[in-house]
Amino acid sequence: MKVCDRSTGRTVLLSAILPMLLVFLWGAPTSANTFTVIELNIEGGIGVATADYVHSGIEHAVEVGADLVIITMDTPGGLMKPMREIVQDVLNSPVPVAAYVTPAGARADSAGTYILLSAHIAAMAPTTHLGAATPVPLIGRDQDKDADESESAPTMDLKMMNDAVSYIRGLAERHDRNADWAEKAVTEAATLTAAEALENNVIDFVAKDREEFLQLLDGHEIEVAGETRTLSTETAEVVVFEPDWRIRLLAVISNPEIVLVLGLIGLYGLMYEGWNPGAIVPGVVGIICLLLAAYALQVIPVNFAGLALILIGVALIVAEAYAPSFGALGIGGIAAFVFGAIIMFDSDIPGFGISYAFVIGIALVFAVLVVWLVGFLLKLRRRGAVSGTESIIGGIATAVEDFTGDGKVWLEGEAWHAHSALPLTKNQQVVVRTMDGLTLVVEPLTDAQEGDDR
What we know:
Helices cover 50% and strands 19% of the residues. The protein is built from 16 helices and 16 strands.
């Protein structure tokens, strides 16, 4: 009877505990069923900072085990090399990547079109557009090559065109999109609105916002890394991936206008340090700004003939301050600076141009600044010492009383003991010749001396 009672007790206990265990185990994996989405945002010109940001974002998505990466885009295009790096990251990503042109009025032109076509899923918001993917040469062709070594411009253009056509057709065909239109985007700079892109099988979805886009993706099948996956976005949790400080800094300094300002601050900082040794701060700031500008010049397209013109312009402005030429050197310097800045960043690459108004404005501001600065420093040099014995000898004092021999004079806000071999009257101006201890040796100020002082 006791054994039977124990068995019955255990059965009752298990019957009470087992349902609770099942409920706990059934509810435990709820968070694991969440569909994690990592969102990356591309705005403005596509450059090195953009490529680093996308690469870091996809790596982060892999590390956290995300189910989908969404790249929202609003870009006029950008540099070819960073664009290819982004495309490679998207194509090789083990996590599905969706490219979404948003918000309304946004665009995915030029390099943005390549990225959109490379994504596993391509979508656009209404009133957005894509296309105009014709490649643009980054720099002028080398004019120093021998005739038999250099290639003609038409040949180079044809090579670039054929390469771009093959590249964009391959991206479109990979995801069964309209490769013929993709070719026209390169050869004819063709563009499409969101509705036209959907109708022509260039994109997969048109969605007014991210929420609608995720709803459309629910149950959608895609092929990633050789396997078919079905997206379940009903429980999607979106996490926006923010760039780190290094990428943000690179994005700021790779702006042509910021590069120009950094270069000028660097040059003027070093010039001021050279004119006024020991100031330290201008020299340190100048070196840092120049290094940042030099780094930025490595990652954006520049014409070094323009850089040479900028340096010549700065030199002419400085020369105007030293040797006034009734404006000839100054005007020439400003003109050289303006044309140099325009030539230096004279690129048709979207997002990497420079405002003419900005260039002219910054040239005038820095020209006035350097002329004032150099003039001020030259005035300080002519003035001589302002403290110590050197500032007193040669100074102009005023006799406090009538005296011959010893008396008192007023100099720099103080009464001094003075000695004069010639008779002096009260309020008469005298010039200090030497000092004997704390006694000033003075003599009457002549008209000629007063004129020299003026």
